[in-house]
């Protein structure tokens, strides 16, 4: 990049917050997706919202593509720099929790605040911020909003969308746009924060975010139900919902996942099982939680669970949850490349989706382990492979195509929580139609006429 | 309107669904706002989504302003035709409930479905659709989404925004745009349904809407708490939230409201009280509801409630709720014109807002009764006047200006649920800033380049 332009960025944020050396830029060339890296031209780390706005303005005025980055934990390439002349803008210094308001049940944060740090701060004030994406110990609120991050609690507590009350963001002119409110109800102006949600960095740059907080549950009960037939596990999920119980966690892991996790953790998992469900019910009254737990246990048995381990305290629950937490790390040990997919279906279609994934894994001779959020239909078929093996990776890409087809045929959607990024942009028309893609492009170009905000992502 | 053009509309929807006579057009010249009517050029009532799309396309191609109308119950003028050449498109025939899916907890409806009809159909299937705007027995789901309608259950159950999963809508080309999903989690494409939410008919025309359903509460308990000091009532609201109880209803009515309601209903309301709270707690377990109710009663007493009437059954609860249901009708009897305001503040600011409204009513020598959703800060100061009295109405308009100022100074917002419409468009910049208004206009004109979708509303 032109040395004078670099000086202008330095003038805004200071020389210690501008990274021009190649060895630094390399560190920001990739995210958590299995895609080719792209080294950016420059990396800039503003320290204040004002510096952020000026950085955006300077980059945009000079026609530089912009990719905003928090932790870079995105799984679809949304944070891979668009091109060699991209400026990566880091939000990590914008990590202030500006306000936690207990009376009015909201908080205001800068986009670089780490999700679990925020959740803990809220918890320390006696409140609850439920969205818990798998990346929460590193991912940022800004990233969560840009992707409408989900997590395990989606069925009962909702996802980031359900907690976004408003925001300030910078538009392509570096002007600050204000939307939403600190009030529960607000219909003033357009729902611009709704529009920015899940926009994957393509419509503007977040400056600060208003989030809803809720009272915390006071009690919970966790269990693991073990099945000889994954269909019985799926049936249990349906039965629990039909009984109008919304567990705060309702996760499924298949045999392949269990085998790999046990090989990694030696925790005594039932590796001969076809599948397990991890279920947690919670609520504000201990007796109600007990009643729900009893009902869930009854339903598990009725639907064919071989046995159920009930955690008698938090320590036992954590032991059970180890399985879920270790699913991805355990699978990732198997082969050099781990492709984590995210196609989502209505929960009643989980049996069909699981069957489809198994059929696809056989058809393409691939190892695929499936775990995920059975309660909300957001499964994660995980393909274990080596992308350096081009023949195998071609089979992987074809398998992914078929996984998407299967999800769409079951009235599902391409992505439940990981985003479209680079990886899924080409399927957008298949799920919607040409008019929707064109409309989305029109929207995008209206708000980003030079096509600089994360070009090549989301809608192409 | 040109007779040949009318024939083209007739060719789409049939002659019985096109209203050109003035006496018919007059009926669609106004909504529930206290604003000047505008007789449209034509009124068209499509019967199918396909007819709707063709109607939109024909109107847009011919440069005709379009105002979409469900019940016309909007309180801010959002459904008053923009101009004399406007085509009003009615959604009333698009009233099919297309799907209620119990397994996957969603429904799909056409925009003209009446909210309470939908809620009852959902209830008959053992599920719950909570948003209950005051207009629910006449307003439509399409109108609710266009305004992000609220209601009494907002604090605990959320508002329309929290139930909108996706939609199909027609853009200015009459093309069908598809967004969202039948799944709990979806980040595919832009959050276009979020963008359309609260857009007040200015960005497109809804064709069908996907709504989330939840399990119904199994038990509830209702009560009326009576206060000698409205500050004690406000303090009670704060105490209930601080105790982490979210009642499904938490309404306030002031002395003036009580006086008018009693004069209307003779129900034995405490007209010597300064204010009352109507509180309902609900949940899935009877004992938990009992415990919450006991806690609430204790807090009411602690905060100075003179006494509390607890409803022992549904009939008694309905009797108590009569007061709330009759607030607006009772106030509306007082004078020829009833101006129902909607400025909303964080709930901790309710005492200050109530004090401000009282100060304003004295300053401008106006009668203002205040009732509303104390739990979420969405109060409805209601000004009783006669708009034919120009001197008085000038004082009313100045008072409204000050009410908005007061709300904004308390970190509130112009509108909690009634929308911006015509009535509040000029205050948009005050709450946000010039850049936000310009950004919003840019968005609007990108999606509606001829400025035909409900011109003069929302953002001007």
Note the topology.
The structure is a homodimer of 460-residue chains.
Chain A lengths: L2 H11 L4 E2 L2 H5 L15 E3 L4 H13 L4 E4 L17 E4 L6 E5 L4 E4 L5 H10 L16 H7 L6 H4 L6 E7 L5 E5 L11 H5 L8 E8 L6 E9 L2 H13 L6 E6 H11 L9 E9 L2 H17 L4 E4 L3 H12 L1 H6 L4 E4 L9 H14 L3 E7 L4 E8 L4 H20 L18 H4 L2 H14 L13
Parallel strand pairs in A: 2-4, 3-4
Antiparallel strand pairs in A: 1-2, 5-6, 6-9, 7-8, 7-9, 10-12, 10-13, 11-12, 11-15, 14-16, 15-16
The largest interface is:
A-B, 94 and 94 residues
Can you identify the CATH superfamily of the domain at 219-409 in chain A?
Answer: FAD-linked oxidases, C-terminal domain
The CATH topology annotation of the domain at 219-409 in chain A reads as Vanillyl-alcohol Oxidase, Chain A, domain 3
Gyration radius of chain A, rounded: 22 Å
How large is the count of helical segments of chain A?
16
CATH architecture of the domain at 219-409 in chain A: 3-Layer(aba) Sandwich
Lateral strand order in the biggest sheet of chain A:
13-10-12-11-15-16-14
At the first level of CATH, the class of the domain at 219-409 in chain A is: Alpha Beta
* Number of strand segments of chain A: 16
Q: Given the helix and strand composition of chain A, which structural class is it?
A: alpha+beta
* Largest pleated sheet of chain A: 7 strands, antiparallel
- Oligomer classification: homodimer
What proportion of the residues of chain A form beta strands (DSSP E)?
A: 15-25%
